[in-house]
Amino acid sequence: MGFDLYPYSIDRRGISIVQETATSFLSGWTNFYVIIGSAAAALTGLTFIVITLVAGARALGGSDTVAAFSSPTVVHFCMALLIAVTLTAPWPMLWHLSLLLALIGLACIIYMIIVVRRTFRQTDYEPVLEDWLWHIIFPFLSYISFFISSLALPTYPVPVLFVIAAGTILLLFIGIHNSWDTVTYLIIERFRQDLQNQDQEEL
Question: What is the span of the domain harbouring residue 66?
Fold first, then answer.
């Protein structure tokens, strides 16, 4: 009797069925995550331009303010890209994907706790309700949805995949909103600085 080099040689037929099932659940999402991944990658590049503007704006204050309001935007785009890459990989079984998504969700939740601490620690800008929603609450909801849904993925793959997709889209909209919010804030603050400089020169 020869040895089967196939890694699941104990029950090859059963594993093949599991592999086919996992692939069938994920294959229908390929085009969706290709679009999401492409958008996330492009928006990440554009965000670096925003960060460059932030670096040149004295109105935004120190590194704590940048770390609290600008750096998380890049992280959100990168996480959307990571989720897109993860969901288009040829996973043999759903629990492999479930484990990785749970780790990603947990790591991002921990990161958001750090962001909250940075938000309270910085003193250059006082957040309003809209800032708490888009910079803290909505990202928390997205990452918590990744963590919780990943635990249910092997049991309820169809509805869970829609929850993960919704969380990924939410990350994209969060990043877009926060990038636009940063740019508009910079424009307004620079306009105020220019007016103050003109007033001082006139005096």
Answer: 21-183
